[in-house]
Amino acid sequence: MQTYLPIAEVSVNAFLLLGLGGLVGILSGMFGVGGGFLITPLLFFIGIPPAVAVATGANQIVASSFSAVLAHFRRRTVDLAMGSVLLTGGLVGSGLGVFVFNYLKSLGQVDLLVRLCYVIFLGVVGALMFVESLNALRKARKAQVGARPPRRPRTLVHALPFKMRFRTSGQYMSVIPPLMIGLAVGVLAAIMGVGGGFIMVPAMIYLLGMPTKVVVGTSLFQIIFVTAFTTMLHATTNQTVDIVLAVYLILGGVIGAQIGTQIGLKLKAEQLRVLLAALVLAVCGKLALELLIQPAELYNLTELGRH
Questions:
Q1: TM spans, by residue (predicted)?
Q2: Overall pTM surpassing 0.70 (yes/no)
Q3: What is the DSSP string of 146-176?
């Protein structure tokens, strides 16, 4: 069943769009990521223009993240204090990111920027996460039964000023690192159409020392508001949000998020991180190949006429 997307100006199979939304929803519930790092490249692959994919992908992330975070609220695995600090930085970052996006769009360079950002960030984060997760799995197998886990060493995060207690995470630390992480994720959300979970989840685990189960729900809480704000900015400044495309992705995403949450609870934290890292690297590899391989059409007359 073909559906015409008025803003993207292409026809796409409706069941394919529902399937993509469902897949990303499952990932959202399992890993605490909005899924934008996957949905946006997948939209590229089926012929959606990058500017529309970025703005509309953010729309879908709001729905799947909201569906998943409800399940985490019921299990009390959301640190609202930490989520609020991350959100403050995220809103500022998303405003800055939309400004950069609009400037590059006026120069005609936004498509290349989005793809390059994906390859660089997914490659670096995926590789680091994969290596660390494999090491964690090896240590977990070697650990003696009943042995006490080693205490985390104090880091710069604990030495900075403006400290605050985050009870759900069991942390007492400066608000500066969470603010900076939120700011970076907000910029990425606007430029890449992502929730930023693939950056935020590793940062919260390794830099802030938060428990993995709390990280997932807290990350989703922050993602909802940042991506909603980003979507609103793109809709008002760029008019690149395709409502028809968003509805199909949202329907699939809401259902998939509930399934993903149940799957995530049955897997160990180390296993979740290995799976997420492998997925990030796979998407990075596909995008890198598309940048390197010569396209079938070397010139785009539509774009030439616009600029």
A1: 12-39, 80-100, 112-131, 175-208, 214-233, 245-265
A2: no
A3: TPPPPPPPP-HHHHSSSEEEETTTTEEEESH
